[in-house]
Structure formats: structure tokens, C-alpha cells
Amino acid sequence: MEILKVSSKSNPNKVAGAIAGVLSKDNQVELQAIGAGAVNQAVKACAIASRFLKERGVEIYVIPGFVEILINNETRTGITLKIVAGKREEVETQEVTESEA
More exposed terminus of the chain, fewer Cβ within 10 Å: N or C? Predict the structure, then answer.
């Protein structure tokens, strides 16, 4: 799975484009962000990518978590956003199957 690192200075539109680019090759990508500003930019990028990909019939799901990252021999805790993509038809079929169970 490809990992995209997001900083507080990252452009959310460009990160969203990178998300869409990775998801065109693979069905998942991970964003990593350390600090409130970086997490803010990462979440904005997810929202922009979601809107863009929805127009193409692709739904994305974001799974948040924590990640330990070693920077200059110091362990920092960051946020990871795992993004998984699927076609809208697949998601709707899965929802119907789950509600029938």
C-alpha cells in the first residue's frame, strides 16, 4: 500500500489528486500526518477526493488510526488515514446483502 505523507503546508487539492491517482492503480492508499495542521489538510484532501471520485462512481471509506513514526531518532505519534475505494454498485450490493442478513 502506498503511503502519502501530509504536512500542514500540503495543498489539499494536490493531495486529493494524488489520492485519486493512487486509487486508479490500487484500491487503497494511506495518508500519514503529524500535528493538527497536517491532520486538517489530510482530512480536507479526503473530502475533496471523495467528491471528485464520487462523480466517477467510486466511493471511498476512510479508516483513521494512530501511527508511530521515527523522525531524527525520536518517535512521534501521528494520525493515519487508510483510504479504501470501491465502485458504488459494489457498495450498494453489499449494503443490501448486509441488511437482509
Answer: C
